[in-house]
Design goal:
Blueprint: H1 16-27, E1 34-39, E2 58-61, E3 69-72, E4 74-76, H2 91-103, E5 106-108, H3 116-122, H4 125-130, E6 133-138, H5 146-162, E7 167-176, H6 192-195, H7 202-208, E8 215-224, H8 231-255
């Protein structure tokens, strides 16, 4: 347990249970349980809005065609009405309040998986250990590039090694042609033991290394795509049809903590 100097500020002499009520009023919102963390637009100099707080800098593929590497950092995409600046008052308040802030929310990174490791690494160990719920989204297979695969591998390894999550929200971009899918167009749970070994599908095994979860929420974000005219596109369409069925069952069998 951390040791602190004898409190002199009037606020710190308020009973701990009252301080906890104040922290909850400042750091939670009854209507919003999700905080969205996103990459800053590197084409604009938004770093000044973060004040003097030091945030990790990292590089993303940023232009329209994702062909140019640019330096950026992360930020809260929308503040629902919380006041996290109280964490900066002193170390004692930070330690007391950080658990309230980070345990009460799901941290959603969307497609900006590059922000996951910098954001989590910038937190204190106490704050980081308080995070129990994270949402991330996997890019659609035809548009996944080598740097996407590297970021995904690193993020999954970091979460597996350094976090003790209870819930992971995994969104996956897929494709849906205008034609109706048939039942035979989907893969079963058992098919993914083999599919996860196919080159380019290693990301399945990587995310499955995140163990001990109480809940895995797999959601398909389907976009229109033309009718498949190649084996690769047929596989993509069939996988897309299986995201919330066989693939979700496969991940749950790998990632959920055993029931007692």
């Amino acid at each position: 347990m951390a040791e602190y100097p004898i409190p002199t500020a009037p606020f710190l002499r308020v009973p701990a249970e009252i301080r906890l009520i104040i922290y909850k009023l400042l750091l939670t919102d009854q209507d919003t349980e999700v905080l969205s963390i996103r990459n800053d637009d590197p084409s604009t100099d938004d770093r000044r809005k973060h004040g003097e707080r030091c945030r990790s800098q990292y590089r993303i593929m940023a232009d329209r065609f994702r062909a140019r590497s640019m330096e950026t950092t992360y930020s809260l995409a929308f503040n629902p009405g919380i006041f996290p600046s109280i964490l900066g008052v002193n170390r004692m308040i930070h330690d007391e309040a950080s658990h309230v802030l980070y345990s009460a929310h799901t941290f959603d990174f969307g497609l900006d998986v590059e922000a996951v490791i910098p954001f989590l690494s910038d937190l204190t160990p106490l704050a980081r250990s308080s995070i129990k719920r994270i949402n991330i989204v996997k890019r659609a297979l035809p548009y996944s590039k080598d740097f996407d695969r590297c970021e995904w591998r690193n993020v999954c390894a970091f979460i597996s090694k350094h976090m003790e999550l209870v819930q992971l929200g995994l969104g996956i971009l897929g494709g849906k042609p205008a034609i109706q899918w048939e039942a035979t167009d989907t893969y079963k749970e058992s098919d993914f033991d083999l599919i996860s070994e196919i080159e380019g599908m290693e990301w399945m095994s990587q995310v499955a290394e995140i163990k001990g979860l109480q809940e895995v929420d797999v959601k398909a974000y389907l976009q229109h795509c033309p009718p498949p005219c190649s084996n690769a596109m047929t596989f993509f369409v069939n996988f897309s049809a299986s995201i919330e069925l066989g693939f979700a069952a496969f991940l749950k069998s790998q990632m959920l903590a055993p029931a007692f």
